[in-house]
Q: What sequence folds into this?
């Protein structure tokens, strides 16, 4: 008999959805001894409705504000029950991580519960139809910023550099082997881990549905997205951006940036360079505390 | 039986939690419940009590983490009040609908605003329809006992509904009285180790919990929850009986004093009932036929039991410790339903008292009785609550 997928085929995610691919890769890596939590979000599609679920592992639909607190309770209860081999996997979007869920995440990290918090970042509230979040890139049009977002995105990775995460990484749907390696490392840790995964969303970002992986790869290549990890106080940059001018191509490939002015374009590129330079300086430190 | 200790309501609750073999506590400090969780966390920290304590960063996270832990099959507890309970509101519904036997102490404090530290029931009444059993203890002893009883009732397979044990902020939480604390062995006869009835989060038997629910089945799930809640009435009676046989302290869903043959009865909840009882005794001594019926279980509401207590009574005065702004207090509305469904033809009068920590004195209760008498004599009907302890000259009328 063939082995069943831990995440069912035939999910009702949008065509070209990166979130589903990330979830699939996550379960490939973690296996059946995993409990997952999803907030109301695109990921809730995997958790299903009624008596149907996509997960072949235990799952809880949490509230949007406090997935990490739910995970804290599950993690501690597993210890009480002697089920230490089970991985607790939080699977939330940018809204549930950067915005309404930020306090809960910060609390769970500070308390040191054993759990892996994955944030699939599609840069807006996509499940409610594409409203801007604090993760939305400057200049991007959304339903709540039709003329383009006026503010830079919150840099959650830099914010979390000074929290007691035992492992922190960025990853991308454009490099699944790298994501799997990072997730495997996270699951082996006895404490809170955070993996922030870029999830280019064809529906919200307005690019062809067969381009998800290409857009994600271009994000890495252009330096719009930085691939790095932090472990034992040391930052390692995984991929050096090739050319920041490729950001022009990255923006041009997505209709959400259709209204970006030359000034905003300059700012987006300058900010990407600045982030990388900051990261390089931080990576020179022997121990970041 | 037990050991007599001088405990305030908060300490009594902490003892009740430990005697109930709670495995995981998550809480956030808030006046006036803070001493409960300070006591519990200190005992855990100094290894005098073997349990896990999660020092959450908010009340919302406190209850969220308990939902996670309870879903994973451990016995849980939290405590809150006022703002904290309001912040939990989103997840009190999730806990109840997930049929998790969580127990929470609510140390009642006015809900803002204006800002207040002091007691009334406006906090717990926001939770009235969230699907939690609500027990109102009137003393530290009851607070301890109700916590133990709450676990037995919530975890009963006929019920599977979380419970709030309410005490009045400061009036009970910070009032020290002799409390009979069951020994560990005695308590263990009543509360056993936790065995979850429902499925838990277990990779061996994977389930999806709290899934999106379509209109095709939502109503039926809510009705099932309602049946669980309603079943709690009978189960409470059984556990009160069992508790009395083990510990000698007898409780009921409605606790009456001098209602037999009374013309006028006060219906109330919580700490004010001691004062009402005292005034009833004095008025009885003066030849007045008065009594008091205290509601101890606000959810599920004891309609039949209260109707039985009010049978033959001419006047019922209900004292709500919450304003019921624009309408009537919630206890008054329940008493109206009780009288109507019990076919009891009594006059019933709505009183509001003791808001934001205002003391309910003997005089307040005497005023309730005399006002009731006057209203009954005049035949007047109340179309809004009577704010019996109001300082009229401080009220601003803009009209």
A:
């Amino acid at each position: 008999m063939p082995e069943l997928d831990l995440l069912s085929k035939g999910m009702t995610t949008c065509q070209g959805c990166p979130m589903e691919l990330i979830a699939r890769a996550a379960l490939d890596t973690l296996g059946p001894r995993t409990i997952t939590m999803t907030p109301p979000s695109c990921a809730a599609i995997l958790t299903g409705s009624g008596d149907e679920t996509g997960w072949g592992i235990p799952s809880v639909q949490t509230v949007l504000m406090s997935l990490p607190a739910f995970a804290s309770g599950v993690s501690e209860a597993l210890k009480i029950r002697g089920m230490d081999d089970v991985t607790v996997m939080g699977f939330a979007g940018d809204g549930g991580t950067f915005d309404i869920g930020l306090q809960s995440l910060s609390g769970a990290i500070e308390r040191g519960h054993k759990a892996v918090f994955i944030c699939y970042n599609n840069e807006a509230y996509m499940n409610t139809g594409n409203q801007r979040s604090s993760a939305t890139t400057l200049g991007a049009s959304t339903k709540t910023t039709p003329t383009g977002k006026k503010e830079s995105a919150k840099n959650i990775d830099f914010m979390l550099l000074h929290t007691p995460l035992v492992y922190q990484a960025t990853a991308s749907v454009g490099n699944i082997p790298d994501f799997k390696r990072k997730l495997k490392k996270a699951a082996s840790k006895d404490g809170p881990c955070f993996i922030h995964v870029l999830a280019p969303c064809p529906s919200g970002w307005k690019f062809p549905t067969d381009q998800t992986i290409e857009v994600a790869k271009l994000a890495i290549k252009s330096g719009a997205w930085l691939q790095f990890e932090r472990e034992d106080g040391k930052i390692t940059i995984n991929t050096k951006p090739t050319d920041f001018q490729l950001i022009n191509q990255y923006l041009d490939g997505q209709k959400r940036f259709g209204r970006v002015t030359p000034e905003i374009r300059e700012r987006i590129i300058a900010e990407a360079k600045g982030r990388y330079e900051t990261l390089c300086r931080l990576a020179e430190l022997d121990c970041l505390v | 039986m037990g050991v007599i200790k001088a405990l305030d309501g908060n300490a009594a609750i902490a003892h009740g939690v430990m005697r109930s073999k709670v495995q995981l506590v998550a809480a956030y400090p808030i006046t006036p419940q803070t001493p409960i969780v300070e006591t519990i966390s200190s005992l855990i920290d100094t290894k005098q009590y073997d349990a896990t304590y999660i020092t959450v960063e908010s009340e919302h996270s406190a209850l969220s983490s308990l939902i996670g832990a309870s879903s994973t099959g451990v016995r849980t507890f939290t405590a809150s009040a006022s703002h904290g309970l309001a912040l939990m509101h989103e997840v009190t519904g999730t806990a109840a609908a997930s049929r998790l036997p969580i127990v929470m102490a609510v140390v009642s404090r006015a809900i803002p605003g204006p800002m207040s530290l002091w007691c009334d029931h406006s906090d717990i009444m926001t939770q009235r329809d969230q699907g939690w059993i609500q027990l109102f203890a009137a003393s530290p002893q009851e607070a301890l006992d109700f916590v133990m009883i709450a676990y037995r009732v919530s975890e009963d397979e006929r019920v599977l509904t979380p419970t709030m044990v309410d005490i009045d902020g400061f009036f009970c939480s910070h009032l020290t009285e002799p409390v009979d604390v069951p020994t560990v062995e005695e308590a263990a006869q009543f509360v056993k180790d936790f065995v979850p009835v429902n499925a838990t989060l277990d990779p061996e038997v994977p389930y999806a919990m709290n899934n999106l629910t379509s209109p095709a089945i939502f109503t039926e799930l809510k009705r099932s929850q309602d049946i669980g809640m309603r079943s709690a009435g009978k189960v409470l009676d059984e556990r009160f009986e069992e508790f009395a046989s083990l510990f000698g302290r007898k409780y009921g869903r409605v606790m009456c004093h001098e209602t037999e043959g009374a013309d006028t009865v006060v219906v109330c909840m919580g700490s004010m009932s001691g004062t009402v009882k005292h005034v009833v005794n004095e008025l009885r001594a003066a030849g007045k036929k008065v009594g008091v019926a205290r509601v101890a279980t606000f959810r599920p509401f004891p309609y039949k039991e209260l109707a039985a207590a009010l049978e033959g009574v001419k006047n019922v005065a209900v004292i709500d410790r919450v304003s019921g702004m624009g309408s009537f207090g919630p206890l008054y509305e329940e008493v109206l339903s009780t009288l109507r469904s019990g076919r009891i033809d009594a006059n019933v009068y709505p009183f509001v008292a003791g808001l934001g920590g205002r003391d309910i004195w003997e005089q307040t209760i005497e005023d309730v009785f005399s006002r009731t008498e006057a209203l009954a004599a005049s035949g007047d009907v109340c179309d809004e609550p009577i704010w019996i302890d109001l300082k009229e000259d401080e009220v601003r009328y803009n009209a």
Observations:
- The mean pLDDT of chain B is 97.
- Chain B has two domains: 3-247, 254-394.
- The CA atoms of residues 37 and 251 of chain B lie 26 Å apart.
- Residues 215-247 of chain B form the longest helix (33 residues).
